[in-house]
Amino acid sequence: MPTKLVDVEVATASRRTVPTVVLAATGPALGPGGDELDTSEITGKAGETIRQRGTDVWTLGVGTGTLGDLRTAGASLVRALNGDDAPKSVDVLLTPDFDADKVRAFVLGAALGGYRFKVTAEDGPKRVGSLRLIAGDTGFEEVLTSAALKAHALATATSLARDLANTPSNVKDPRWLATTAAKLADKVDGLSAVVRDEKWLRQQGFGGVLAVGGGSARPPRFLELTYDGGSGPHLVFVGKGITFDTGGISVKPADGMHLMRTDMAGGGAVISALLAVARRRLPIRVTGLVPCAENHVSGSSYRPGDVVRHYGGATTEVQNTDAEGRMVLADAMAYAVKNLKPDLVVDVATLTGAMKVSLGLRTGAVFTSSAELAAEVIDAGAKAGEKWWRMPLLEEHVEAVNSEIADYKQCPPGPGGITAALFLQKFAGDVPWAHLDIAGPARSEKVYDEVVAGATGFGARTLIELAEKYSH
User: Is 252 one of the annotated active-site residues of the chain?
Assistant: First the structure.
């Protein structure tokens, strides 16, 4: 871990001894020697990959040349090249209109499109080792190289988030997730990690984490990653780290429960983002908090009707033990507000099935009272190739969060995604805050664009772009 991705470099001269890829739309296409290629089978559809008969020349459809089309093209190319005859290296002839944004999109797709996670005794399929992007204008080589490196860094973060979420839960318990992240952090200059155990959580009063993790024989952990790259604003990213979710006493249906190994996808996004921010040495302070727990069924499981006291003293009336994500996030957010003096808190979680209904499976939800912050998240996602949509924090449901026997209700009546966000808002204090619900796009059952089946790594790239925006 992490899974190795295809290498990418930018050059100004192609090689004669390696396969060549020509980007094509509809109409004539020229090969590496300037000869016109056979375009009779070419439609130019994004991702269409055709090998010219009897040659080592491929045509790759780029559609209308949008950034989305280019991500799709890069991903499709690598998937087509991988296999028994996978070449070690390939030249890709860029068209004159390729700028930094287009290179980033193409490289992101190429790096992630060939991702594969499989636990097996067999050797994996052969993969193309590297792509060399051939830029015709030598004056842009440095700019395009910088763009390619950034795209590869974003892809590496996404790949790690996928690896963490795809790891089976018989391996990935709270201790494994926290210590694996800490080991990775130890290898990055400027990034430190602290892992707290259940004894510390009990001493400090992390009632939400302890309640959720109390039904498992594998106790909870609390991961804190710290990067101090300067005197700028202090961002705190909080990621849900539920390493498996049975639903607890409010047990889930059997169908689909096996996918709950990815219920810590928000935590994986935060871990990956912190590693990438530190590797890129952004001039900003960022802390990542990941409360890690397993939500299991046993005699020590927390119950509907319990009243749980969170870090800082606020209490919650439990109504559904399958709404465990907000319980652990509440503790971590309260800890951040009290101890870290953040300028911004962003939490990321596979929180509610309601968002799958509202926004489908490819768009994340943004909840915040700040229109400016919502726009910043959406813009960061657009740069990273991740789609977000702002959802409302409806005033008419605020009172529903209050409980008669505790401070708050865990599952207020009303629209589930919105009321969950209103619950979390109670723990953000006066700090600017955004809640990112990734229940839909965190997993995929099929291949599309640069996404493969399984965990998608959604959210990690947006967090990195957001940190970069605040570092300026």
Answer: yes
